[in-house]
Structure prediction request, 222 residues.
Amino acid sequence: MKLRGPGLVFSGFSLIFIGVGSYMAWSQDHAMRSHLPVTADVISREIESNSDSDGTTYRPVVKYRYTVKGKSYESDQVTVLKESSGHSWATGVLARIPPGDTVRAYYDPADPSRAFLLRETSFFPYIFILFPMVFMCIGLASMVSDKPPDIQGLRPLVVMTIAWNGVGLLVASHYFGVGGALDLTAKVALALYGLIGGLMLYAAVYQWFEARGYRSRDFAPI
Prediction:
């Protein structure tokens, strides 16, 4: 197999993001499994904004106090991961936590100063895995395309189809395996990814038959 420079660049670029997404997914899963529940008192609530060249994002910030083994701690982290998104999302999250109320928080037994409020799986880390698969598939196709002419178009398509759908199945099984919910982000991302994967599979099967001399008339009823 002849490795091509552009293919390695595309694959390496995508692996960086896939690695980041995989680490975030692992961190989220680990926190969900290891953090312990504790009663906390809400001190204050606000929405924090962050503006840059790409626009403005918002993060719900809830300061709360809790006690572990007789020692008092404070935290302001709401979600398992520190996420920022649109203003409506931040407002909706904040509305679920009444001001001045007693809530359940989850703290890290290895470091009680670290805690969060909402024990819910976010789909955000998985976007970092799925989106770069476009570049990963381009890179893989480039690296396996130097083959005899009769299978030159089929081989890259098969490799891309296996990689695309394989990663999609792994992401979906892990996300739902840790209790992920079908929110709007997960619905759109998984539906679009699955649609593309289905089209790739159809194209690969069709081209496989074409490469071996089959035509639609070969399957016509007698």
Remarks:
- The chain has a mean pLDDT of 86.
- Helices lie at 5-34, 87-95, 124-130, 133-144, 154-177, 184-211.
- The two ends are 44 Å apart (CA to CA).
